[in-house]
C-alpha cells in the first residue's frame, strides 16, 4: 500500500531531510554581510599579531545557524504536539500562555535591573524561561480543576492566564522607563543571540532529547488524535502519554523562548505544511516537522541577517513574510487531501 | 456461574447525590450477543463506559474474564475489550488502513511499527467489514455508514474477546443498520466474540441478540433471553409506551404506538 | 467649556493663545528633564512651578512640584501649578497634552530636541519666550566655545572608531542618526557601524568583528558599581578575541545623564566621551 509508513520509508525520509538540513546550513554559513573564504577559515584562529577574522566570523555564524536550527526544530515539534493534544489545528506552542509568561518574565528582569549573567546569557533569558514554564504549570493546574484534562478547560485556562499576564505586562510597561521598554520589546521580538558554547550544548541536549522522546510516544499520539476515549480503548495510557507529551512540548518551547525570544509562525505552520505533504502519522510528522522547522528558521535567520545590513531584522518578521505565501502555495496544491477544510 | 463480564452490586452516579445505576448484578456469558436498551437517561452509555473502565463505579465490582477490571493495565484491558463509540470524525486525515491499524498499537514491538502479522489482521478486518476497497482513502471522505464499518473493523482488528458498541446504527439507513448487525453476528458466530451493543431498536435486538438488558430510568433492570424479556408489559413498564406485538415465524416484533398512531388502541377502542 | 476656562484659566489680561508676553512669565512647567536643565541654566530656577518625575538635575529640581512623568504627564497637576507657560517636547503624547492645554487656555511652547542643532535653537526659543535672551545666548556661546576648544584639543587626526552599545541581548547599538553619534563625532570619533535605517539597529556578532571598533562604550545599568560593570563588560566582550577594542582593553561604561540626555550639559557628556577616545589627552 503506497501510503502506509514503514520503517524503511521513515529512515529514508529522515535521512534525506537531514541531508537537506546540512546543505542548507552549509550554504547559509557562507552567506553574510562579510565575505568569508573557506580556505582562510581552515587556517585556524590565528595569533594576536595576525588575527584570522574569517575564522572568528565563521565561528559566530555557525553557532548562530545551529541555534536557529535548534529553535526551529523545537517550535515545530511543540506545535505538532499541541495540535494533537488539544485536537485543534490552530494550536501553536504559545497557545497556553507561554508567550505572555515569557514576556512578563522578560520585563520583570529588565525592570529589576539585575546585572548578573549566567553562561553568557542575561537575566532576561532566565526569567523568560521561568515565566514560560511557570505559566504552563499554572494553566495545567487550573485546567485540571475543571476535571481531569478537559481540553476546553485547558484552553479556557490558557485564555484567562494569557489575559491576566498580558495585563500585568502592560502595567509594568507603563511604569517602566522608555529604554527599558524598548529593551524588552526587542528581546521579545525574536532574535538569534549567540551565547556561550555551554548554552548551545545544553539547549541542544534538551531539544534533541525532547524530540527523540516525542518520537517514542508517537504511536500513542496517533491514537490520541481520535480522542482520549478511543485512544484509551485502543490500549493507550492516555494520562501518561498526555503528561509526557505536554511536559516535553512545554519544556522545549520554554528553552526555545529563552534562547531566542518569541518567534511566531514556525510552530503553527510547519506542522501543517509537513502534514499536507506527508500525512498525519506522527511517527514521521514529529521528526520531519523538526527538520523542516530547523531548515525554515535557518533560512529566515539568514535573510534577517542580510536584508537590512548592517542592521538585522527580528527573525519573527521574516518567518511571517517568508512563510505565509509559501504555506498558501502548499495549501492550494494539496487541498484535496485536507479533510477539515471542506 | 461465571461469565466473561461479571457485574456485582454495581452502583454509579455522576454526582454524589444522584444514582443512575443502583446495585446491579448480572453476568454475560462468553460468546453471547447482548443488547442494552432503555429510555434516554437510563444509563446505557454509562454502563458501557463502566464496562471498559472509562468510568469508575461508586460501589460494586466488575470482572472481565474473571479478573477485576482495575487489575488490568491499559494494554491488557485493550486485549480484552474493544469499544466502538458514537461516530467521531478525526481532525487529521488518517486513511482507513491507518485507522484500522491503530488498533494494533498495544502490540507494536519496540520499533513502534506494525509487523506483517498486524497488517494481515487489519486486512482481514477490512475484508470482514467490506471496507477493503476504501483502504487508501482518508476516513473523512467516507459516508457515515462506511465510516461506522471502519470503526467496527478497527475494533475487530484489536482482536479482543469482547466488543462494546454504543448505538452503532444511529443515523444509518435501513440497509446499513441491517448490514452492521449482520457483521456483528458474524463476528460473534465465526470468531466467538462477546458483543454488547447499546441500541434503541428493540426489533433489531430481538432479531439478532441472544440476550437483552432492559434498563429503566429509575435504576431497575431486567436481563435475560430476548424472547423472555421482551414482552409488551415489560416494554410498557420500562419505556412507558404501548406496543403492538406481531410475529414473524418464531420471533416477535414490536411496533410502538402513540396516542394518535393509526392503530392506536385508544382510537380503535 | 469656555466659561470654565474663564473661571479656572489664566487670569485676565493675558493672551489666551500663542506665547505670552515674555516678561509676564513667572510660573513655568517643564515636561522633560532636558528642558528643566535648560531653564535652570538660563537662570529661571525660581520660576519653575512644576517638573516631571525624572527631572533630576540640577539637584534643586528635585524640590519642585511634580507633574507626572515624561511619558505620561499629569494634566491635572500641570493645571494645579497655574503655569503661565508650559514647555513640551514634540513627540505624540506631549503634543496631545500641549494641544489640550492650549484649548483650555494655557500657553505652551513646543521644542524638538533631537539633534545638537535642535538643542541650540530650543535654548534660543525658550530664552525668547521668557525674556532671557541674554542668558540664552550666553549659554549657547559657552557651550559652542567649549566644544571648539575640545575640537582643537582632539586635533584633526584619524577618527577613533566607536561602537556604542545600547543593549546586549539582543545586541543593539546607537546608529548614525542619533544625537549620541553627534557627540561621538564632536569628541573626535566616528561610529563603527555604517548608515542604517534604524536609529538603534540590532546587529549580529558578525558586524562586531567587521566594524573593527577601537573603542566600545556601554551605558551603565542599574545602581551597581561602575568598576564592576566594566570588569563584566570586559569579560563579555572578550569573546571577540581580536577586536582592537578588546585587545587594547578600551571598553568603557559611562554612567549618567550627560550622555543619555541632550541638554545644556552637552559639553560635559562630549568631554567624557572624548576622555574614553583619547585618554592620554585628559590625564591630569
Describe this protein's structure:
- The complex is a heterotrimer of chains A (342), B (269) and C (284).
- Chain A is mainly α and 342 residues long.
- Chain A contains 14 helices and no strands.
- In chain A, helix 3 packs across helix 13 (282-306), helix 5 packs antiparallel against helix 11 and helix 13 crosses helix 14 (315-334).
- Chain A is globular and about 70 Å long.
- The two termini of chain A are 26 Å apart.
- Chain B folds into two domains: 5-230, 3-Layer(aba) Sandwich (Rossmann fold), CATH 3.40.50; 242-269, no CATH class.
- By secondary structure, chain C is an alpha/beta fold.
- Chain C folds into two domains: 2-144, Rossmann fold; 155-282, Rossmann fold (3-Layer(aba) Sandwich), CATH 3.40.50.
- Helices cover 40% and strands 13% of the residues of chain C.
- Chain C contains eleven helices and nine strands.
- Chain C has helices spanning 2-8, 33-41, 75-80, 92-103, 116-130, 133-154, 179-186, 205-211, 226-237, 244-247, 266-277; strands at residues 28-30, 48-50, 85-89, 108-111, 160-167, 172-173, 189-191, 215-219, 251-254.
- The model of chain C is unreliable at 1-17 (pLDDT under 50).
- At the A-C interface, helix 3 and helix 7 of A face helix 8 and helix 9 of C.
- Structure summary, number of beta strands of chain B: 12
Low-confidence stretches of chain C: 1-17
CA radius of gyration of chain C: 21 Å
Rounded average pLDDT of chain C: 85
* N-end to C-end Cα span of chain C: 63 Å
Q: CATH superfamily assignment of the largest domain in chain C?
A: Nitrogenase molybdenum iron protein domain
Which secondary structure elements does this structure contain, and how are they paired or packed?
The complex is a heterotrimer of chains A (342), B (269) and C (284).
Chain A: H1 7-29, H2 38-41, H3 53-85, H4 98-112, H5 123-145, H6 151-175, H7 178-188, H8 197-216, H9 218-224, H10 228-233, H11 238-260, H12 266-278, H13 282-306, H14 315-334
Helix pairs in contact in A: 1-13, 3-8, 3-11, 3-12, 3-13, 4-5, 4-6, 4-7, 5-6, 5-11, 8-11, 8-13, 9-13, 12-13, 12-14, 13-14
Chain B: E1 5-12, E2 21-28, E3 33-37, H1 44-51, E4 59-64, E5 67-68, H2 74-80, E6 81-84, H3 96-101, H4 116-128, H5 144-157, E7 162-166, H6 174-191, E8 194-198, H7 202-208, E9 211-215, E10 221-225, H8 226-229, H9 232-239, E11 242-248, E12 251-257, H10 265-268
Parallel strand pairs in B: 3-8, 3-9, 6-7, 7-8
Antiparallel strand pairs in B: 1-2, 1-4, 4-5, 9-10, 11-12
Chain C: H1 2-8, E1 28-30, H2 33-41, E2 48-50, H3 75-80, E3 85-89, H4 92-103, E4 108-111, H5 116-130, H6 133-154, E5 160-167, E6 172-173, H7 179-186, E7 189-191, H8 205-211, E8 215-219, H9 226-237, H10 244-247, E9 251-254, H11 266-277
Parallel strand pairs in C: 1-2, 1-3, 3-4, 5-7, 5-8, 8-9
Antiparallel strand pairs in C: 5-6
Amino acid at each position: 500500500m503506497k501510503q502506509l509508513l514503514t520503517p524503511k520509508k521513515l529512515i529514508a525520509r529522515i535521512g534525506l531531510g537531514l541531508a537537506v538540513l546540512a546543505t542548507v546550513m552549509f550554504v547559509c554559513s557562507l552567506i553574510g554581510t562579510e565575505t568569508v573564504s573557506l580556505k582562510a577559515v581552515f587556517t585556524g584562529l590565528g595569533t594576536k599579531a595576525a588575527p584570522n577574522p574569517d575564522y572568528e566570523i565563521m565561528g559566530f555564524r555557525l553557532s548562530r545557524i545551529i541555534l536557529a536550527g535548534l529553535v526551529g526544530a523545537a517550535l515545530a515539534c511543540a506545535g505538532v504536539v499541541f495540535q494533537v493534544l488539544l485536537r485543534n489545528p490552530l494550536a501553536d506552542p504559545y497557545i497556553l500562555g507561554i508567550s505572555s509568561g515569557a514576556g512578563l518574565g522578560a520585563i520583570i528582569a529588565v525592570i529589576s535591573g539585575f546585572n548578573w549573567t549566567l553562561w553568557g546569557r542575561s537575566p532576561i533569558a532566565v526569567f523568560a524561561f521561568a515565566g514560560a514554564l511557570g505559566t504552563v504549570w499554572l494553566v495545567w493546574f487550573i485546567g485540571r480543576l475543571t476535571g481531569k484534562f478537559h481540553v476546553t478547560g485547558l484552553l479556557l485556562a490558557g485564555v484567562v492566564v494569557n489575559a491576566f499576564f498580558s495585563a500585568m505586562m502592560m502595567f509594568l510597561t507603563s511604569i517602566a522607563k522608555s529604554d527599558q521598554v524598548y529593551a524588552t520589546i526587542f528581546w521579545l521580538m525574536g532574535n538569534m543571540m549567540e551565547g556561550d558554547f555551554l548554552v548551545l550544548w545544553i539547549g541542544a541536549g534538551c531539544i534533541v532529547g525532547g524530540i527523540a522522546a516525542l518520537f517514542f510516544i508517537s504511536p500513542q499520539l496517533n491514537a490520541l488524535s481520535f480522542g482520549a476515549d478511543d485512544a484509551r480503548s485502543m490500549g493507550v495510557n492516555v494520562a501518561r502519554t498526555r503528561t509526557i507529551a505536554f511536559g516535553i512540548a512545554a519544556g522545549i518551547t520554554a528553552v526555545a523562548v529563552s534562547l531566542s525570544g518569541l518567534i511566531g509562525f514556525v510552530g503553527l505552520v510547519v506542522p501543517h505544511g509537513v502534514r499536507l505533504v506527508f500525512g498525519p502519522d506522527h511517527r514521521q510528522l514529529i521528526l520531519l516537522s523538526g527538520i523542516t522547522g530547523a531548515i525554515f528558521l535557518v533560512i529566515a535567520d539568514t535573510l534577517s541577517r542580510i536584508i537590512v545590513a548592517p542592521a538585522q531584522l527580528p527573525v519573527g518578521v521574516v518567518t511571517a513574510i517568508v512563510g505565509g505565501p509559501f504555506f498558501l502555495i502548499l495549501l492550494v496544491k494539496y487541498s484535496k487531501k485536507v479533510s477539515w477544510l471542506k | 456461574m461465571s461469565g466473561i463480564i461479571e457485574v456485582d452490586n454495581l452502583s454509579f452516579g455522576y454526582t454524589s447525590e444522584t444514582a443512575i445505576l443502583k446495585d446491579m448484578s448480572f453476568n454475560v456469558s462468553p460468546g453471547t450477543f447482548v443488547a442494552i436498551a432503555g429510555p434516554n437517561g437510563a444509563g446505557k452509555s454509562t454502563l458501557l463506559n463502566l464496562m471498559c473502565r472509562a468510568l469508575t463505579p461508586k460501589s460494586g465490582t466488575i470482572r472481565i474474564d474473571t479478573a477485576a477490571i482495575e487489575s488490568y493495565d491499559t494494554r491488557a484491558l485493550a486485549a480484552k475489550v474493544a469499544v466502538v463509540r458514537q461516530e467521531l470524525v478525526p481532525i487529521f486525515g488518517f486513511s482507513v488502513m491507518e485507522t484500522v491499524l491503530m488498533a494494533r498499537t498495544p502490540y507494536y514491538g519496540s520499533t513502534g511499527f506494525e509487523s506483517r502479522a498486524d497488517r494481515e489482521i487489519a486486512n482481514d478486518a477490512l475484508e470482514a467489514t467490506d471496507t477493503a476497497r476504501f483502504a487508501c482513502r482518508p476516513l473523512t471522505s467516507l459516508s457515515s455508514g462506511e465510516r461506522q464499518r471502519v470503526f467496527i473493523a478497527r475494533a475487530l482488528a484489536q482482536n479482543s474477546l469482547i466488543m462494546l458498541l454504543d448505538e452503532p446504527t444511529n443515523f444509518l439507513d435501513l440497509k446499513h443498520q441491517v448490514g452492521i448487525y449482520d457483521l456483528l453476528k458474524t463476528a460473534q458466530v465465526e470468531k466467538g466474540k462477546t458483543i454488547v451493543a447499546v441500541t434503541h431498536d428493540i426489533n433489531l435486538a430481538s432479531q439478532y441478540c441472544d440476550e437483552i438488558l432492559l434498563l429503566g430510568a429509575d435504576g431497575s433492570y431486567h436481563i435475560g433471553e430476548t424472547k423472555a424479556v421482551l414482552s409488551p408489559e415489560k416494554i410498557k413498564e420500562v419505556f412507558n409506551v404501548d406496543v403492538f406485538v406481531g410475529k414473524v415465524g418464531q420471533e416477535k416484533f414490536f411496533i410502538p404506538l402513540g396516542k394518535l398512531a393509526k392503530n392506536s388502541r385508544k382510537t380503535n377502542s | 467649556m469656555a466659561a470654565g476656562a474663564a473661571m479656572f484659566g489664566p487670569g485676565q489680561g493675558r493672551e489666551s493663545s500663542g506665547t505670552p508676553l515674555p516678561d509676564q512669565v513667572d510660573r513655568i512647567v517643564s515636561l522633560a528633564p532636558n528642558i528643566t536643565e535648560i531653564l535652570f541654566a538660563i537662570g529661571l530656577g525660581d520660576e519653575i512651578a512644576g517638573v516631571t518625575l525624572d527631572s533630576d538635575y540640577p539637584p534643586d529640581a528635585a524640590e519642585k512640584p511634580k507633574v507626572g512623568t515624561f511619558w505620561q504627564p499629569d494634566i491635572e497637576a500641570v493645571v494645579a501649578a497655574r503655569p503661565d507657560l508650559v514647555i513640551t517636547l514634540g513627540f505624540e503624547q506631549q503634543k496631545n497634552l500641549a494641544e489640550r492645554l492650549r484649548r483650555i487656555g494655557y500657553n505652551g511652547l513646543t521644542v524638538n530636541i533631537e539633534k545638537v542643532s535642535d538643542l541650540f535653537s530650543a535654548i534660543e526659543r525658550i530664552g525668547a519666550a521668557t525674556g532671557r535672551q541674554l542668558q540664552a545666548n550666553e549659554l549657547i556661546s559657552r557651550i559652542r566655545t567649549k566644544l571648539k576648544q575640545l575640537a582643537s584639543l582632539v586635533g584633526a587626526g584619524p577618527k577613533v572608531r566607536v561602537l556604542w552599545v545600547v543593549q546586549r541581548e539582543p545586541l543593539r547599538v546607537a546608529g548614525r542618526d542619533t544625537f549620541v553619534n553627534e557627540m561621538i563625532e564632536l569628541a573626535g570619533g566616528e561610529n563603527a557601524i555604517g548608515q542604517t535605517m534604524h536609529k538603534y539597529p540590532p546587529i549580529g556578532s558578525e558586524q562586531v568583528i567587521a566594524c573593527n571598533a577601537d573603542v566600545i562604550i556601554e551605558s551603565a545599568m542599574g545602581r551597581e558599581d561602575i568598576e564592576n560593570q566594566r570588569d563584566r563588560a570586559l569579560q563579555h566582550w572578550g569573546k571577540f578575541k581580536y577586536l582592537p577594542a578588546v585587545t587594547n582593553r578600551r571598553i568603557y561604561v559611562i554612567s549618567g545623564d550627560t550622555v543619555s540626555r541632550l541638554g545644556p550639559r552637552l559639553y560635559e557628556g562630549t568631554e567624557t566621551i572624548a576622555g574614553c577616545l583619547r585618554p592620554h589627552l585628559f590625564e591630569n
